[in-house]
Amino acid sequence: MELRTNRRRFLQTAGTGLTLSIAGCSAPAPSSGQAATDEQGDGSATVTIALEIDQETLQEKQNSLTEQLQNGSLNQTEARQQLYAAERELLGEAAATLEDRIASDERISVAESAEEMGVLLVTGSADALIRTLGYPEVRGLFPETTYEDALAQLEGSE
């Protein structure tokens, strides 16, 4: 049962844009209102963190739902709703775990959270931000505007 969520499509699109930017393709130079680093003049930056959910737990839930679909105890709509609920729960757990980690480091903080889209807006020193890439609940770091794009997509889907 392959279900694609808005969050997945959003992260795929954001990842493609980030890859092109890293490669030097169509990456605009920061304007006066769009500084990528050192926004506060203190060496800190604001970025979007994309959350990674526990894939093993999600796979177990997906397998269980597939089995229930096959034996007739669930229909396709019910299975899809339960899978979305499981994804939301796993995103909430990933966000809570990451926020706990960040709370213990004074060099980084969560400015905003849109866990239903799997993104957090964080501000911190470059080394603290890069260190988050080693956490299992972090899929990647993206430009600050990626958070705004996620919110716009969320509002558009409601």
From TrEMBL:
This is Uncharacterized protein. It comes from Halodesulfurarchaeum formicicum.
